[in-house]
Design brief:
Radius of gyration: 13 Å
Strand order of the largest sheet: 1-2
Shape: globular
Distance between the termini: 21 Å
Largest sheet: 2 strands, antiparallel
Low-confidence stretches: 92-98
Mean pLDDT: 82
Number of strands: 2
């Protein structure tokens, strides 16, 4: 993470998605990546852990919880795991491709 990196937490993430705490932070990082860097999040657990100030084990639990709640979708591509935002998929939101 660079000193100039930032994320935006939008009101609907709390009001409509019902997120808070580290789930909210993790979701916001994935959302920002999906919007600005490509169709899905392909960063590392360590990157998410740095944003949330928790361990990678905690990130694993947070991602599982978000996936179980239907907020994100786990995408397995060869040996890598990516995550996408379900809300963007269901709204037919057009994302830039890599």
């Amino acid at each position: 993470m660079k000193d100039t990196d930032y994320i935006t937490i939008q009101g609907w993430m709390m009001a409509e998605e019902g997120l808070s705490g580290n789930e909210l932070l993790c979701y916001a990082v994935i959302y920002a990546h999906c919007i600005y860097a490509g169709n899905d999040y392909s960063g590392t657990y360590q990157e998410l852990a740095e944003w949330c100030g928790v361990t990678t084990r905690s990130i694993n639990n947070i991602l599982k919880s978000l996936s179980d709640k239907g907020k994100i979708r786990r995408i397995e591509r060869s040996e890598n795991v990516h995550y996408s935002i379900v809300r963007l998929e269901t709204e037919n939101y057009s994302l830039t491709t890599k």
